[in-house]
Amino acid sequence: MASSCLLKLSRVLAIATIIGLPSAVVAHGNAADVSPFPPPGTYKLARIFKAPDNWVLEDSAWWPHRLSRYTGGKVTLLSFFYSTCRDPEGCPTIWTTFETVHEAITKDKRLHGKVRLVLISLDPRVDTPTGLNIFSIGRRSTQKISPWHFLTTWSDGFLGSILDGFGQAAARDLDANGNPVTTISHQVKYYLLDDKSWVREVYSSNFVTPEVVENDIRTLLMESGALPPLQRAPK
């Protein structure tokens, strides 16, 4: 984890340096984009840890799948949420980031079918497979472009193993008498995984912008050969 922190710090410093200098100009097709961030493919993302491969549920409580079904074969952006979360700095922020990244994928045909978005519920008691269908139904029209998957588990016990595997902190809040309530305190984290289920970047709420995530996605796709290297705009 120390090496990951150093890598992240170096990226922050690199971005800060670039912001203070003329912006990077990169060719996207026939157009040139000006960005304050390092261009995709000009940096490496370290393998931080292999994602856990616990059992998860999507469409049915009687038909479990291994998590690797949702973390391998494509670049994956993954986070944790729960459907009744109302903290404006919590799940709604995660949702907004996912929506923005999804929109960017939709606009770039080169990314179609190569990136998936995964949200795992922190509240398996409420967020059953049937209950989460309300989210997936609205995403079916874009499944071939960038599939969304809303996953849950049977219980807090099964969920705990997944949280431990990702190093994700979450705990149900208690009332004045020490009884559990409906709200859940949790870290806002985003995990970017390559097509081999390796976590290659972890973003916190203090260090995430959709453009950085999009650049990292393209970097991983270039690394695997799913995207060609980015060409510099001619001088």
Care to describe what's here?
This protein has one domain: Glutaredoxin (3-Layer(aba) Sandwich), CATH 3.40.30. It has five helices and 13 strands. The protein has helices at 2-19, 91-107, 129-137, 156-166, 210-224, and strands at residues 24-28, 31-35, 49-50, 55-56, 65-66, 75-81, 115-121, 148-151, 170-174, 180-186, 189-193, 198-204, 231-232. It has a six-stranded mixed β-sheet. Strand 1 and strand 2 (31-35) form a beta hairpin. The longest helix has 18 residues, at 2-19. It is globular, with a radius of gyration of 19 Å.
Secondary-structure blueprint of this entry?
Layout: H1 2-19, E1 24-28, E2 31-35, E3 49-50, E4 55-56, E5 65-66, E6 75-81, H2 91-107, E7 115-121, H3 129-137, E8 148-151, H4 156-166, E9 170-174, E10 180-186, E11 189-193, E12 198-204, H5 210-224, E13 231-232
Parallel strand pairs: 6-7, 7-8
Antiparallel strand pairs: 1-2, 1-13, 3-12, 4-5, 6-11, 9-10, 11-12
Helix pairs in contact: 2-5
Largest sheet: 6 strands, mixed
Secondary-structure arrangement, i.e. CATH architecture = 3-Layer(aba) Sandwich
What is the overall number of helices? Answer: 5
CATH topology: the name is: Glutaredoxin
Q: How many runs of DSSP E, i.e. beta strands?
A: 13
Distance between the terminal alpha carbons, to the nearest Å?
40 Å
